[in-house]
UniProtKB/TrEMBL annotation:
Organism ancestry: Eukaryota, Sar, Stramenopiles, Oomycota, Peronosporomycetes
Similarity-based family: Belongs to the IFT56 family.
Species in which this protein is naturally found: Phytophthora lilii
InterPro entries per record: TPR-like_helical_dom_sf (IPR011990), TTC26 (IPR030511)
Protein name (database record): Unnamed protein product
A Gene Ontology cellular-component term: ciliary base
């Protein structure tokens, strides 16, 4: 028999909530001490709902709610849930009139990228170091250099103010200046191991990846589950090794139950570690928030031959870092070569030269690659070789490097080295590209290995590419005196297209083989092959040429 449950009275409800609250479990303070902000937020949300469910008013209840909201805002802020923190501070209106609340709200608005609103809210708060730091960062984000200078001059030597100054240096790509401040603070505050993370981030930006990893260890030993620290370590592993090594580091977070989808930065970096996987799903939402997201989306478009999309995304970017200058140069160069636009090519040259000749980049690998790219577009291949040869040992097995270096070497007559360099290209996609195949074919011919060049032709499936490669083989073999393969190529060309030029080329190549035979440099088999090629032709000149060849063979005891 069903018996209806009696309605719970307010008193019984209050007793039930009190009983739940008194159950042994971690306190908010204990969770915060362990950096378990998720646990702290869960407890606080429960307490807030419990307090709302219980009727009653009074100073004690209002004070309890005030503390709960303050802690909830604090925990939410540290979880990166800035909107919830802002809402919690909003609920404090009428409960807590402390003027510092305006500054706390400004912090939330700042992280929500609402910089104008953050500045207005900060100005309502009490004057002091926190207000100045907030306005300092808002001025930077809004590009107000005049106000930035004003707030900069009001910074003190306090640890917080110096950290703020170092952060601005970091955001403005002044990594050495930021490093100097962090290292000085670390000497003054040796127990503050979080400073190691900031120093490591600076060394990462300065391309000292090994040093960055070493400095990071102290913090990771103390806090192995730190998302920020693990992310920095993963980025270093990516630069030193590959995406797989970086993903292994991120796996330490997922193994602990962390959902990387909740962290914008880690989600963005995973796209990079996985070579663009999920790029179109993840990156567009971060384009205006993370500068690297725009650049990586441009890289994705370039890799997938979406040149116009890449150009549209980067055309309005005012470059301020070497990476931005380089990427704009690559986009202009690629677009210029595909559309035969001299203006795009010229713009690319200028960007590459700016990076390659800058004092900070001229002796770096990217800097020398930029100078090589500039000279490449100018077709000054001797200069290209000088720069690429200087970094060869660092990029020996890089396919892109070997492709470009091989072509440049071939253009300067270093045919043997060009062949060796092109053969180091391993990617199947590259090895099947007609541009690569044609240059490799030319290198084989210039190194007197026409049979290898012919094998490349036989492997081609595309009819247009086959025809073009036949023309290359025919003309290059003729120039190099490799007349047998020139004759074979001209023979097929003539059958595909009865152009008189192909007959003349075939006739000249066949006579060339005969001349080599007379000089003792061609075999009877080669001569017989030439005769077969000629006999298949209906041109009236064939009979005369064949008769002379046979007569010479008979006179010299060679049966053909």
């Amino acid at each position: 028999m069903y018996v209806a449950k009696p309605k719970q009275t307010q008193r019984a409800k209050a007793q039930e909530i009190a009983r739940v609250k008194t159950k042994k479990g971690p306190t908010v303070e204990e969770c915060v001490a362990k950096r378990d902000f998720t646990g702290a937020a869960a407890i606080l949300e429960f307490n807030l709902k419990s307090d709302d469910a219980v009727a009653g008013t009074g100073p004690a209840k209002a004070e309890e709610k005030r503390k709960t909201l303050l802690w909830l805002a604090y925990a939410s802020f540290h979880l990166g849930n800035y909107q919830r923190a802002l809402d919690a501070y909003g609920q404090l209106r009428g409960v807590d009139d402390t003027p510092e609340i305006y500054l706390y709200r400004a912090c939330c608005l700042f992280y929500l990228q609402m910089y104008k609103e953050a500045a207005k809210e900060a100005e309502k708060g009490p004057a002091g170091q926190l207000q100045n730091r907030l306005l300092f960062h808002c001025a930077h984000k809004m590009g107000d250099e005049d106000k930035l200078l004003v707030y900069h001059q009001q910074l003190t030597d306090s640890k917080e103010d110096q950290l703020s100054l170092a952060a601005i240096h970091y955001f403005r790509n002044h990594f050495q200046e930021a490093t100097d401040i962090y290292k000085r603070l670390l000497l003054e505050n040796r127990d503050d191991i979080a400073l190691n993370v900031y120093v490591a981030m600076c060394y990462y930006k300065l391309d000292y990846y090994d040093v960055s990893l070493e400095i990071m260890q102290a913090y990771l030993q103390a806090f192995p589950d730190s998302v920020v620290a693990v992310n920095v370590k993963a980025c270093n592993q990516f630069k030193l090794y590959n995406g797989a090594a970086a993903k292994d580091e991120i796996k330490t977070l997922t193994d602990r139950g962390y959902n990387i989808e909740q962290n914008d930065l880690v989600s963005h970096n995973m796209v990079v570690f996985e070579d663009g996987q999920n790029a179109l799903r993840v990156l567009p939402q971060f384009v205006d928030a993370l500068p690297e997201a725009r650049l990586n989306l441009v890289v994705y478009y370039l890799k997938h031959d979406k040149l116009q999309e890449a150009y549209d995304l980067i055309k309005d970017v005012e470059p301020s870092t070497p990476q931005e200058y380089i990427l704009k140069g690559v986009v202009h160069a690629t677009l210029g070569q595909s559309t035969s636009s001299r203006q795009h090519i010229k713009t690319a040259q200028q960007y590459f030269q700016l990076v390659g000749s800058s004092p900070t980049e001229c002796d770096t690998i990217p800097g020398r690659q930029c100078m090589a790219s500039c000279f490449y577009l100018l077709k000054q291949f001797e200069d290209v070789n000088i720069y690429l040869n200087s970094i060869k040992q660092y990029l020996y097995n890089e396919d892109d490097f070997n492709w470009n270096f091989g072509i440049s070497l071939c253009n300067t007559g270093s045919h043997q080295e060009a062949l060796e360099t092109l053969l180091r290209v391993q990617q199947e996609e590259y090895r099947h590209d007609y541009c690569y195949v044609s240059w490799l074919t030319r290198c084989y011919i210039l190194n007197h290995n026409p049979s290898a060049a012919w094998d490349l032709y036989l492997k081609l499936d595309n009819s247009d590419d086959s025809f073009n490669l036949l023309q290359l083989i025919a003309h290059d073999c003729y120039k190099m005196g490799e007349f047998l393969y020139a004759a074979k190529a001209f023979d097929i060309l003539e059958r595909l297209d009865p152009d008189p030029e192909y007959w003349e080329g075939k006739r000249g190549a066949c006579v060339g083989v005969f001349q080599r035979a007379v000089a003792g440099k061609a075999t009877r088999v080669e001569l017989e092959e030439v005769l077969s090629i000629l006999k298949a032709n209906n041109n009236p000149q064939v009979e005369y040429i064949v008769r002379i060849m046979k007569k010479w063979g008979a006179e010299n005891g060679i049966s053909v």
